[in-house]
Specification:
Strand order of the largest sheet: 6-5-4-7-8
Number of domains: 2
CATH superfamily of the largest domain: SCP2 sterol-binding domain
Order of helices and strands: EHHEEHHHHEEEEHEH
Strand content: 25-35%
CATH architecture of the largest domain: 2-Layer Sandwich
Number of helices: 8
Helix content: 25-40%
Number of strands: 8
Largest sheet: 5 strands, mixed
Radius of gyration: 17 Å
CATH topology of the largest domain: Nonspecific Lipid-transfer Protein, Chain A
Distance between the termini: 25 Å
CATH class of the largest domain: Alpha Beta
Length: about 180
């Protein structure tokens, strides 16, 4: 999900002691998996981001996610971290259902927005909005997102734009 401030990482890892997080970040930096850098004004901050070496594990993480998908259990009701949303969408993407479709969506789950671009049987998912390119903006909460992924009709979902976009999105992204 791009560079993260220390506070963002802490929020995404509830229950992890701050000293343990700081230690792990130093170890990952020493191993060349992440870099630490300063972001200039208007919002100066120190951020951590994956290096080329860190990004190289992406395929393995996706494969582990596909392997573990059948083991998913009921939602614990906890906050959905942004990384889980991005990874969940990548795992749920069904290229055969997408075919040669070219479509862009904005998905917002509990205030976290991602841009989903489907093209040529592939998907690109990035934090933020797709802007004017989006066929539709789909807004829901965590439970509504889970229901959508399981192929259920979700009353918690609001669609702005193309009203048929939700059905197409559900067809291409399914954990059912």
């Amino acid at each position: 999900m791009g560079p993260k401030r220390y506070t963002d990482l802490r929020e995404g890892l509830p229950g992890l002691a701050t000293d343990l997080l700081a230690t792990r970040l130093r170890e990952l930096q020493d191993a060349g998996v992440i870099d630490r850098r300063e972001v200039p004004r208007p919002t100066p901050a120190t951020v951590y981001e994956l290096t080329e070496r860190g990004l190289a594990i992406k395929a393995a993480i996706l494969e582990l996610s596909h392997w573990g998908r059948p083991l998913l259990q009921e939602s614990s009701g906890e906050h959905l971290p942004g990384s889980a949303l991005l990874l969940g969408l990548k795992v749920a993407f069904r290229p055969q259902a997408a075919g040669d479709r070219r479509e862009t969506y904005d998905l917002e789950v509990e205030g976290l927005r991602v841009a989903i671009r489907v093209h040529d049987g592939r998907v690109d998912i990035a934090p933020g909005s797709a802007g004017d390119d989006a066929s539709a903006t789909i807004i829901t909460d965590r439970q509504g997102f889970i229901e959508l992924a399981l192929g259920q009709a979700a009353e918690r979902v609001h669609v702005e734009g193309d009203s048929d976009a939700l059905a197409r999105l559900q067809e291409m992204f399914s954990l059912a």
